[in-house]
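Supplementary Text 2. Reproducibility record for the structural model of the 634-residue chain.

All settings were left at their defaults, and a single model was retained for analysis rather than an ensemble. We include the record here because the model underlies the residue-level annotations in Supplementary Table 4.
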Amino acid sequence: MSSEPDLLATDIEAYLAAHERKSLLRFLTCGSVDDGKSTLIGRLLYDSKMIFEDQLAALEADSRRMGTQGGALDLALLVDGLAAEREQGITIDVAYRFFATDKRKFIVADTPGHEQYTRNMVTGASTADAAVILIDARKGVLTQTRRHAYLVHLLGIRHVVLAVNKMDLVAWSQTEFDRIVADFRAFADQIGLGEVTAIPLSALTGENVTQPGTAAPWYAGLPLLPLLERLPVGDDLRDQPFRLPVQWVNRPNLDFRGYSGLIVSGQVRPGDRLRVLPSGRDSTVARIVTRDGDLALAVAGQSVTLTLADEIDISRGDVLAQAAAPPEVADQFEATLVWMDEEAMMPGRPYLLKLATRTVGASITEPKYRINVNTLERLAARRLDLNEIGVCNLALDAPIAFDPYAENHDLGGFILIDRMTSRTVGAGMLHFALRRSQNVHWQALDVDKSARGALKGQRGRVVWLTGLSGSGKSTIANLVEKKLHANGRHTYLLDGDNIRHGLNRDLGFTDEDRVENIRRVAEVARLMADAGLIVLVAFISPFRAERQLARDLMAPGDFVEVFIDTPLAVAEARDVKGLYKKARAGTLKNFTGIDSPYEAPLTPEIRIDTPQTPPAQAAEHITAWLEGALDYSI
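Retained model, structure tokens:
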């Protein structure tokens, strides 16, 4: 029988046919920096003869020019493709490589070892069936080794291989190998990592990588590649309850309505009873439609379009599930969160949560603790910084269908997205729905916002004045309220200093407390506007994300942002309360404009240039804008 490389060179159709029958294993390499991950993958590619002649020629040239092996082949250069990676001899981004043997296909993710790139490791691990954790035999188990092992456990990777690399640099000492394995297994037992297969090897020389070596006669186990060829990649997803997150409602004409998506677990046949979540409506499968025709059976891993026997309102983000074993539906959860952004996680700050095909607004309501990956201690935390791992409670703007991550990775794993920049800032795993989410429900009320506003002859609004301390927000807001009151409007003014005497007296001035300060005031302002009042809010409110949160609570047009635009030098020169003087002297910490940032509005409805506009004129302008732009009559 022809080998894979021979078929690839001589009979491409036979090569492709052979590949169709093979199973696919996705695995990642991880561990601390300079443990040899890229070299190991390069060795696997080289020994499996998956390098073309032009690639080999380029590798030889690059090895002479920038390699770390004295002119000999530097196999790490096959994977480290970024210029910065080659210059520094490190891995920064996740590099994916495909290779195959006579028995199996592989996709390997080479993940960074540096702590600052831990977020990239999470990306590589999110789709892996197995993890190869490398350890430099000279250094043993390091902090980043533990961090990656903990993440492997959190992400539910079942097959773990401990590759003790660079054994040639410790003279293939069985004593050193046993010591490292015992150290790692003690940590693995603490975190519940389960079975770990340990292999002594040298990625540089190839010993125990693809073929058995002779340097360690005391090791009787399999080399790495034969072990990877034998790891079970079962069809266990097919045995789980059926789940299909709807990606697209397919409506090419009036006579066809189908629901398209990837089956993430289970199997489905025409006639099966399904439940649509979160609505809870049931129906039966009429057809399973694909490009190549209808199917009698579809299983996990297939992308299909289902048609149903009943007309049901279904949208992208809904989940079609086995009616007899549906997922849960909730809007509050406990979750483990890996923070992946330079800007710290802030409790109460609004984010977007994406789970499967559903995206909803979310916030961290209560950080419970962060985890010290060295000692596994649970440490009190009010925030999470880059690469920290913690457990927290989440609150969503709308209920979602979910399974605990331990049962279904696709319906239990999520990412958090920054609303303002669209950056992915965190990745997490849902544990369970909070009991409060099941016990607390919206109560229908007969008297609504329109009825309350009609009684006052106006519509409720929130007019949000933001700017630096000393910009004149409170002065201008007070004048605006006087004018509106004189015009017969029903108003209320929420002033930053006044609110801190009561509702928010327990809050300080850290970034976390500032976020919570604005969240509370936004909720109060929403309730007052719902009562039909015109609510004036005068708060520094330094962060755009929280002002956006306040806007999102209101109906379109019911939130008016007024930027009291005052240069820092002007505001500081006024310094009516002496706060800038204290901040400059270092006796007042976290003061906006000095040692805490202010994010100016990008597109406010009203902008007041206070150096050019006296308070009375500013108030007149705002009042005129409101009376002209907003219809107060019902």
